[in-house]
Structure prediction request, 288 residues.
Amino acid sequence: MISRRRFLGQASAAGLYAATQGRVSYANPLGLPIGIQLYSVRQQLAEDYEGTLAEVAKAGFTEVEAAGYYNHSAAEVKQAMQKAGLKCVSTHHPYGDLRKKFDEILAFDKELGVQYMICASPGAKDPTQKTMTLDDWKWLADEFNQLGEKTKAAGITFGYHNHVHEFDKLDGGVPYMELLKITDPKKVTLELDCGWATVAGMNPIEIMKNHPNRISMLHVKDFTMTAGGGPENAKVTELGRGTIDYTPIFAQAAKTQKIRHAFVEQEAFTMPWKDSLKTDADYMKKLK
Prediction:
């Protein structure tokens, strides 16, 4: 998670929208296009941007969620996405970037046509502070409401993506619950990372059941988890090869009728990366 935050902090802030070219794969039972968070292929994109996007599409993905563009211009990114037949509907930004250059990021994302701007990592009220208190999370929730109001005016939905620590018991409360309580549903949505929530000891099914109107997107990833639980005992693997069964999770997601997108996020590979992408896409296609 730390390396992911560092990556997001270094990645250029951008997003994009590109029309698919008649090639759509759907995930059952939600009937959604097969999506992927491009952090999954961060190293490959840095080496061969267009070629990697082509391989993402070849594996079976049609929607993507961005996480930086390696100094490519918006025109170059658009062209690469259109060439690959991919549609970018969402983009991730760390709070540190949103805090420093929100207006610039919003203008970029609006120009490119993304539907969602997601904060992918939190930040304390005091930017020099390394750890967050519950008051910091409450302050951050208020900040999200303000950012969400601005993105809404631009036609973009603002949201937040969880990792593990959002579910820690902190100062007599739980950060994720504070986010749910304080953020305005009309301004802020939540992208539930089912994998990290599970690693944190939570049940994504119960989260969706208890808050059916707050979650509009899912992150789908798998882990092998050894005895004792916790992040230190969880190892990333491909979908269907770990301990998380997404069949009941997607069944609950279908009941809420609020999930608009589902993105695979393969934070590490246990096989050649092209095989890994195809394994994940095939799992999503066959999910019942």
Remarks:
- The two ends are 30 Å apart (CA to CA).
- The chain has one domain: 2-286.
